[in-house]
Amino acid sequence: MPSFTHTIEDEVGLHARPAAMFVRAAGGFTADITVARDDRTADAKSLLEVLQLEAGRGAVVTVTAEGPDADEALAALREVLTAG
Asked: Is 6 assigned a catalytic role?
């Protein structure tokens, strides 16, 4: 299962608007996508679950995808996270 790890650099972290952008991007793919922080895991297509990760600036998250478009999904989500 492909994945990548990313350190959140955005000043507000993965909250509100950045989380909504992340979830919107994830929703465009058929792959099952999860995002994990420490011992918590969230469905990347659920805004509420992503917000519950409480991934502030400096948090390390791992994004994993499984499905026919997993590689494309991960590339898009990496772009969203690095764009801030």
From this structure: no
